[in-house]
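Holo prediction. Input below; ligand is magnesium ion.
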Amino acid sequence: MNDPVVLSAEQLHKDFGEGEVLCGVSMQVRKGELVSIIGPSGCGKSTFLRCLNFLEIPDRGTVTAMGVTIARNGGPWRSAEEHLAHRLRTHVGMVFQSFNLFPHLSVLDNVLLAPRVVKGGNAEADREEAMALLEKVGLAKVAQRYPVSLSGGQQQRAAIARALAMRPEIMLYDEPTSALDPIVAEEVLNVMRTLDDEGMTQIIVTHDMRFAEVASDTVVFMDGGHVIEAGPPEVLCVNPAHEQTRRFMRTVL
Ligand SMILES: Nc1ncnc2c1ncn2[C@@H]1O[C@H](COP(=O)(O)OP(=O)(O)O)[C@@H](O)[C@H]1O
Ligand SMILES: [Mg+2]
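Structure of the complex:
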């Protein structure tokens, strides 16, 4: 793969006050790559993902996304860094396990509320773009409905459409299907496959080993705040190099 690196994390450290939960985590992601992060509960997957767009502030280490670099060296979080983080976040969309839709707004208005659209000038063009995104995730027919009337899978797809409305180049997903039954989860994962075909760069934290194995370009195994190993799924999921990874694979398969 010769695609350019669009996101990199170097030696990220994070301590919430009870010992490090990220102990120097590094990762490079290329344009169009689909990366699955797997590992036992509590090993730091969510913290790492949140550090990539500064929903959590790493204590030390450097993140670069789409050319925006923020280097942390243990000091206080400064307003200049917050300014950079804001810029970085315009490139990096995020979807959570709980769908976080606004319950008092229709699906369409949830998508239209994306900050880029709020700032935009042409209401008709924004509406058309929002509808196109809902079409892409298979929700055009329910655009006028409220989140409460949708299935979990539909709500999650609406959350993806809302994140896409910011026109991010990179999407992060933290266990997007963990609250869903398998059939509905498949609809969400299919949206990720479509985005992958279109060249979107995506990082997903998941317990879905089958998706990690079948859909990813790269699988990263984390344990105890470290990346233990990373590689193509045919190696990492089938014949991992480290005993720790093999043990984890045995517990989940
Ligand atoms: N905001 C927080 N404050 C204190 N501890 C936290 C916070 N977020 C996560 N942790 C701790 O950091 C560790 C890693 O958590 P997390 O990143 O959520 O793991 P994972 O997503 O792999 O299950 C856990 O021990 C968790 O309790
Ligand atoms: Mg988590």
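The radius of gyration is 18 Å. That is the main takeaway for now.
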